[in-house]
Specification:
Helices cover 74% and strands 0% of the residues. The protein is mostly helical and 99 residues long.
Length: 99
């Protein structure tokens, strides 16, 4: 349950970046620094979601088997979030309409 916060926080920086990039600067321009900062924050959130179970298992708060299940769940959820962004928020290079 403790990693649900990371699942909710991980797409937020990229949503902010896409919203401000499209509304303020069009399709490019001087917002590249904002995009890079949002990528950095997203990476930090994802790395924290993987590191927290290790820390909790090492300190004895959770068991090692529970840590493995949390890591599998993290991978599943973050791949789902990545697929969402690739399909709905990315460019039109990926076509899933054939399905």
């Amino acid at each position: 349950m403790f990693v649900l916060v990371f699942y909710l926080l991980s797409p937020m920086p990229m949503w902010i970046s896409q919203r401000l990039t499209e509304s303020d600067y069009g399709s490019g321009g001087p917002s590249n620094a904002l995009h890079e900062i949002c990528l950095f924050l997203t990476t930090g959130i994802v790395v924290s979601a993987y590191a927290l179970p290790f820390v909790l298992a090492h300190s004895g708060v959770i068991k090692w088997g529970a840590m493995a299940m949390v890591l599998f769940g993290n991978t599943w959820c973050f791949l789902t979030i990545l697929a969402f962004f690739m399909i709905f928020c990315g460019n039109d290079d990926v076509e899933f309409m054939v399905w």
